[in-house]
Amino acid sequence: MLASLGSVSTWRKFGGHGIYCDGIMFALISGEVLYLKADEVSQPHYQAAHCTPFVYPMRGKPVAMSYWRIPEETLESPALATPWGRRALESTLRPIRRAQAKPAPKESKRKRPGKRAK
Fold first, then answer.
1. Which of 26, 28, 41, 109 has its CB 3.0 to 4.6 Å from that of 88, i.e. a possible disulfide?
2. Residue range 35-61: average pLDDT?
3. CA-based radius of gyration for the chain
4. What is the pTM of this model?
């Protein structure tokens, strides 16, 4: 369904499956439900489509992850699912781009205290 994105593979993890494109995890399957990676840019698309985030219990409390359920109407159509998959892949790559774009921190001009001569 998402093969047009690149080399898509799966790996068992988290009691479900991680879905990778060219070695980058961008989706997961849990309880036979497909969830796609979202970030601050793509999350409004999922909210507008009335999708829900992946939630798991941790110490008795629900914890939401940054993976959102794919819209139901896309499940039977690769043409409809592909844009959602591409958006998820972009969400996964965006933090990498931000980290690479950051300038290196400047070295402090303050000298470190050295050892005193005896």
1. 26
2. 94
3. 20
4. 0.74
d(C-alpha 57, C-alpha 72), whole Å: 24
Stated length of the chain: 118
Domains of the chain plus CATH, in order, are 3-93 (3.30.1460.30)
Name, in order, each residue with C-beta under 8 angstroms of 72's C-beta and a sequence gap of 6 or more: none
Q: Edge-to-edge, what's the strand order for the sheet holding 24-30? A: 8-13, 16-21, 24-30, 33-37, 61-69, 53-58
84 — pLDDT class (breaks 50, 70, 90)? very high
- Statement: residue 108 has pLDDT above 80: no
For the record, the structure tokens of 31 come out as 């309880």
For 9, the enclosing helix (H) or strand (E) is strand 8-13
